[in-house]
Amino acid sequence: MAGGLTGLVGALAYSSLLLQWTVDSDLSVLHSYVSELSVRSEPSSALFRTFDVIAGAGLLVLAVMLARRLPAGRRRTTGCVALAVTAVASALDGLQPMSCAPSSDPVCRAGDSGALAAQLREPHTLSSLAEFAAAIIAMVVLSSLFQRLPGWRRLGRWDSVAGLMVGGLGVLEVCLVLADLRWVGLPERGQVLVVSLWCGAVAVRLIAGGGAPAAAREVSGGPPPPGPSRTPQEQPASPPTPDYPRSSAFITFPLALRGSSVRKATSRGTL
C-alpha cells in the first residue's frame, strides 16, 4: 500500500507541467519545451525542478514495488528496469536543468537549431531522451505481462496503446525539431501526460492489491503455495484392521482342506 501511494505521488509530480497556468510564466505552451519551465532564469524554476526530483523518487519506488509483485521473468526485469531508468532520468532533469530557454531566448534558439551532435552533448538532452525511450520500453514490455495477470488485463491492453502514443508523439517532436518548426510544445506535453497517466494507473492497481504472489505463481506456471502442514495428531486415522486370533487360522485351514477332500470323494462315488 505504501509503495503504491508513493508511486502515485510520483506520477502526480510527473505532471507538474499543469502548474504552468498557475505560476507567472511567459513561456508558450505551443512553442516551448516542458524542460524550459525548469531553466534557472524562470521565476518558478525551483518549483518545477523539485517536482522533477520528487517524480523520480516516487517512480523509482513504483518500479521496485512492481518488481516485487509481478511474476519473475525477463519481461518483469526488462519492464521494471526501464521504469527505473525513467525515474532516474526524471530526477536528473531536475538536478541538471536546461541552461537556457530556446523559445524565448534568440541566442539559445540559435544554439538549439545547430548540429544534432552538439545538442546530444547536453546532459539534459541525453537524460530526456533516455527518459522517454525507457518509458516506451516499460509500457510495451509490461503490457504483454499485464495481459496474463488476473485483474491487470484491462490495464495491459491500454498499456500498448499508451506506448504507441508516446512513441508517435516522440517521432513527431523529433521531426519538428529537425525541420526547425517551433511547435514542439504540444507533442512533448502530450508525451509527459500520457506517461504520468500510465504510472498513476499502475500505482492505483498496486494500491488495489493487484499482482498478488499467489496469482503470479498461477499465471507463471510455478508451484502452488504450500498448504498448512499437519501435525501427527491431525493426520486422518486409517480404519482399524480386525484382530483375528492366530489360533483360529491354524484350526480353520485343516478343516477347510478336510471339507474339500470329502466333497471330492462324494463326487467320485456318484459318478
Your description of this structure?
The chain has ten helices and no strands. It is an all-alpha fold and 271 residues long. The protein has one domain. The radius of gyration is 35 Å and the shape is globular. The N and C termini lie far apart (94 Å).
| Main sheet record | none
Query: What is the chain-wise order of helices and strands?
Result: HHHHHHHHHH
How far the N terminus sits from the C terminus, by CA atoms, comes to 94 Å
- Overall form: globular
Question: In DSSP terms, counting alpha (H) and pi (I) runs of 4 or more, how many helices?
Answer: 10
Any idea how many domains?
Answer: 1
Number of strands: 0
Percent strand: under 5%
Class from secondary-structure proportions: mainly alpha
Q: Specify the helix fraction band.
A: 55-70%
What is the typical, i.e. mean, pLDDT?
Answer: 80
Low-confidence stretches: 211-222, 244-258, 260-271
